């Protein structure tokens, strides 16, 4: 994606944290001669060769997986908080804009099978069940329920490139920057408050 230098995020620790916290992404590839996209959770991890990967699964009914063998190149897109920025919040005339965080992950995808599928599902379920009052564990599910795994295609994506953009009004002076934060908080939506909180963390 196009990223102006001022908005480029090259902090690998911050990017890793972002991918873990915003793991519901869009998996994009080419299937049957056209672009195909599926909205799914993608878990960041490491494979047996020590390579950083994303892992996930889709339904066998979803034709997207048939494109994995034809072309193993994929793009996964992850979005964070975003909000409209009004030019009325500046002390000078300007144009409207949008603040947001986005990460694009490029890599090679391959289908996994057998016990690796169960382990992948276990990692995914354990992550999201962690805060449940009565956490469900894959190993406690019945054989009948686990038969449903026959209806999925599991995969791992070896990450080749990450592009990260954090557009948080870094091009504004301190006075206008602080005013944007105040106005976002006054807007009082979940997204605007999340953007204001991200702006507070941005180095100035």
UniProtKB/TrEMBL annotation:
Organism: Flavobacterium zhoui
A Pfam family hit: FMN_bind_2
SUPFAM superfamilies for the chain: FMN-binding split barrel (SSF50475)
Superkingdom of the source species: Bacteria
Lineage, uppermost ranks: Bacteria, Pseudomonadati, Bacteroidota, Flavobacteriia, Flavobacteriales
Protein known as: FMN-binding negative transcriptional regulator
